[in-house]
Amino acid sequence: MRYLLMICNDESAQEALGADEQAEVLTRYMAFGEEMTQRDVLRDGARLRPTSDATTVRVRAGEVLTSDGPFAETKEQIGGYYLVDCGNLDEAIEVAAKIPAAGHGSIEVRPIWEM
After folding, report:
1. Residue 112 three-state SS
2. Which of 26, 71, 72, 115 yields a CA-CA distance of 20 to 30 A from 9?
3. Are residues 28 and 71 both part of a single domain?
């Protein structure tokens, strides 16, 4: 059984870390990745860009509505995800609008850090 492990943290606290602290955190993440790879449990993982780079897509009465940043009402929970490779944000929004849940929930479009 696969699990999506959503890493939730305070973005402002992470941004406030000094260069040495950021390097130490990265080292711990690399060690975690190596260990889980050796255990053969790690299938995929990616760092998401900050929530300020997110776009939320909703479809209401056939109209595609977008808003900057994440938006989820407290009654909404993350139920799954799709990983897509699109040429730009507009294409990603078009794809997100086709997901059935966009008609009654919301789809957060979040860029993945490219290194």
Report:
1. strand
2. 115
3. no
| pLDDT tens by residue, 53-91 | 889 999 999 999 999 877 665 455 665 788 888 989 999
Within-domain flag for 13: yes
Q: Determine the structural domain holding residue 41 and report its residue range.
A: 1-45
Residue 3 falls in which region: left (phi positive, over 0), alpha (psi -120 to 50) or beta: beta
User: Two tokens at 10?
Assistant: 């305070």
Instruction: Indicate whether 1 belongs to any domain.
Output: yes
Distance CA 5, CA 61 (A): 33
pLDDT > 90 in the chain, percent: 17
| Distance (Å, whole) CA 6 – CA 77 | 12
Alpha carbon distance 77, 75 (integer Å): 7
Pair 65, 102 in one domain: yes
